């Protein structure tokens, strides 16, 4: 594959994915190659390749002779996202928690206990914290899977119009995870992460289906 073709494919992939994640292409919306090609001024080939990749990430559904639909946010999808997180994130903490950067943990703890606690912070800080933990595994397959779940989480937040999730409670739960990791009690940290994800799942389902 030529460098130019690869660049166009990545351009198309990033463009479409951002539109979906930020709900500019709404859940259940039909999109088509011609529309996207006109928007970013490329041929249909890189668009088609990007859409196939996004289908593997469960962001679009390509239906022969019908079209391309942005995957809906359904109870089953949200449950699947959090089921994946429940299986993987506590596992990573218990087995790879010793590799998490202590200075980063202390930085997050200071933020959660300090100025961030008094203000409404957008969800990026939550994603950054979880990303720090699951990247400790150094396992590309686990990391890729969890990155995909966090893209879906962003869709949930944007779609619902809410960018802050249970802020004080979330920070308290993160502090509990951090304290256990600093104490090198990885089983407890894993347990605290599991509890946190279960509460986040409940909150996500309530928010999306109250919209």
The largest sheet, given as strand count, sense and whether it forms a barrel, is:
3 strands, antiparallel
- Sequence of secondary-structure elements: HEHHEEHHHHHH
Radius of gyration from CA coordinates: 19 Å
CATH-scheme architecture of the largest domain: Up-down Bundle
Number of strands: 3
Number of domains: 2
Helix content: 55-70%
User: Beta-sheet strand percentage?
Assistant: under 5%
CATH superfamily of the largest domain: GntR ligand-binding domain-like
Point out poorly predicted stretches.
none
Which CATH C-level class of the largest domain is it? Mainly Alpha
What is the fold named in CATH at topology level of the largest domain?
Answer: Four Helix Bundle (Hemerythrin (Met), subunit A)
Task: Give me the secondary-structure category.
Answer: mainly alpha
Bulk shape: elongated
Number of helices: 9
Please state the average pLDDT score. 88
Describe the SSE topology.
Blueprint: H1 3-21, E1 30-31, H2 33-40, H3 44-56, E2 60-63, E3 67-70, H4 75-96, H5 102-113, H6 124-134, H7 140-160, H8 167-182, H9 186-208
Antiparallel strand pairs: 1-3, 2-3
Helix pairs in contact: 1-3, 4-7, 4-9, 5-8, 8-9
